Amino acid sequence: MYLPARVWSQQNQDSKFRTGVLHILAGHSGPETAADARTHFGIFAPQVWKLFPRDQVINLSFWDYNDVAPGYFAAAEIAAREKKVGVIVIEVARPDFRVADRNTFADSDLRAAAKGLYVIRDFAPGQPRHGCVVAQGSSSTFNLVSVLPRLTGAGINVKVIAAISEELFDRQPEAYRNDVLPPEARQDLMFVMSGTRRMWPLRNVGSLTDEYSLTADQDNVWLTGGTGGGRDRRGAPGSGLDLRRGAAVRSGAPDPSEPTARIAERPGMTKGLTPSSRTRRGIRTRTKLCMEAVRAHPDL
Questions:
Q1: C-alpha to C-alpha distance for 208 and 145, rounded to whole angstroms
Q2: Could you state, in order of their start, the residue ranges of all structural domains in the chain?
Q3: Calpha distance 186→89 (Å, rounded)
């Protein structure tokens, strides 16, 4: 499917005329639709659709029902206005989650998805800030939202951001982009996502992002179990998903060990970009709490 889509995009780029907009439903291969093991659990497949020239494709990754209409129509409006946008990709999800209560969000606008990124939980005023958590994907974002009261109880002061589309976010006014995620905040963030480390939802993130993010890939191996059992990466019978150091660990599995902060030993780390020890402790704590929330979800 990628080859004809790539040819379409290139033809749209080179043609003097409008060729239309190709719509791709990126489903049946990602973590959200992984009920049938190997045939469906290609966790890297949905991210292939980012392999287009920048600004020639708009990727949409929805997590809540109310995000779909405003996000899609914002992308369609851009595609109608800008000839270079020839492809819109919609990553679909199967789980039947409850509709989010947006009255509890920092940005309660029903059309917030049209802005690409929006704030679910802002920093608590007057307290030390522990960085940003950027969520993408339906199950991962839903589970993260469910653990927000525990983060508050633990004194973890993080901003939680829903990432619907980097391409939509790039087209927002600079004032909005700097308010949601200023450039310096990218050096102190983690992702909680149903995608993989090979393709972050946002570019230009910090050097600690890989170490602390919760993703669907584990130790750079294919996940062969789906959600219906199977074998683990050592070939032994498994109980299903085991994403240690990733976004989910099936209930009953041992707790993942907390990653060791090795900032001082990392070559090329500049002092100005090195998070404080307080920030590192906050990252480890919020990582552990997020893991516990996803592990407790019955569908994982």
A1: 23
A2: 117-163+182-295
A3: 25
Is the pTM higher than 0.85? The answer reads no
Q: CATH assignment of 117-163+182-295? A: 3.40.50
pLDDT digit string, tens, across residues 18-68: 889 999 988 755 556 555 555 666 678 788 889 999 999 999 999 999 999
- Cα angle 249, 254, 257 (rounded to 5 degrees) comes to 90
Q: What is the pLDDT of residues 163-180, one digit of tens each?
A: 999 999 999 999 999 999
Given strand 57-61, what is the order of strands in its sheet?
Answer: 22-26, 87-91, 57-61
**C-alpha to C-alpha distance for 115 and 258, rounded to whole angstroms:** 34
